[in-house]
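Meet my pick.
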Amino acid sequence: MISKFTAIQGESFDYWKIVGLFGALFVLGLLAFGYIEIQGHHVTGMNQKVVWGLPHVFAISLLVMASGALNLASMATVFGAEPYKQFRRFSAFLAIALLVGGLLVLIADLGRPDRGLLTMIHMNFRSMFTWNVFLYSGFVVLCFLYLWSMMEHEKYVKITGSAAFPGRVILTTGTGSIFGVIHAREVFHSAITGPTFIAVSLSSGTAICFLLLASTFKATGREFHPKLISGMRNMLIFFTLAVFYLIVVEKFTKSYSPAFYDVEKWVLTGQWAWLFWGGIVLAGIVAPLAILTHKTWGNSLNGVMLASGLAIIGEVSFIAHVLLAGQTYPFNPFPGYVVSSSFQDGAFGHYVPSLSEFMLGMGGVGVAGLIYLLGIKFFRLLPKKAEAPEHWAPWNP
């Protein structure tokens, strides 16, 4: 059933135009990095309360999507889903591209990237940041080994693919735990944060895979079987419902506790409530589910592409809400104790991102886009034709 893998020709004007666009984003990111590095972080919108700004939103969004992008490969290798076997190479390579883009933004936004090596020399194993050094680098290695085995040594695919699956779960849990374990940040602190990050990763990763596959196959004149559209739509429905379920559970359990009344009221009605209701609930959950379960839109390529784009907007909104709402709510350094000082006790933070922060974040998107575009040109990552088994009948609304 699986067609031979080929690289795209990549000789058209449209292809190089897109490469130039992502290259321009990368250059803008470099300029923004140089400007912030020379002038200092005071030229950004970040301050003493909000130390993780818009670049971190871009970085973490790309990292979370990278983990989810491996979903198609995991479905084929670990769970034996035959229709997605033809996308394993694409899936693993895209995961690497997104991860590299996110990590570059993360490093560039540290303030002193030249001192990044110190975190590896002086490690604090009680910090999730220390563990993430191993998780991110380990995930890249696992994806490279997985890709290598698919291209050169098929007999190792089951081993490398099975190793990459728990690696991606641990990676996303570790990213979510950066926030979930911070007890002094009441908006962050939650045992459900890690699982919610996994659900958001699966949803957005599947969405970015479908968007890129559909657009690449359409641009290169390759056939994409309608059954595959239905199958990936069903995955999006399931993962979106998982995101909805976990968010409802978290809000219910926190709102049930008197200690979190004020926190949850502020989350749902405060200055960042528009991100929660408009970005997460409407764009990330309600609108995609309405499209995907519609008899006409849910079975059309453009309809599923639109829902995928909205799912990605919802993922970015989720990351932005976690970061910004969590930091602008008054900091409680010693939970359970009354603390007073002359410095901003009980004060809400304010944050307005600067253009340089946006440019820096888009630079990471540019890097990920360049890696993907050059990858499908120089490596055999895509099948000539996306086929589906004759006996396979995915559910239709």
Observations:
- The longest strand covers residues 5-6.
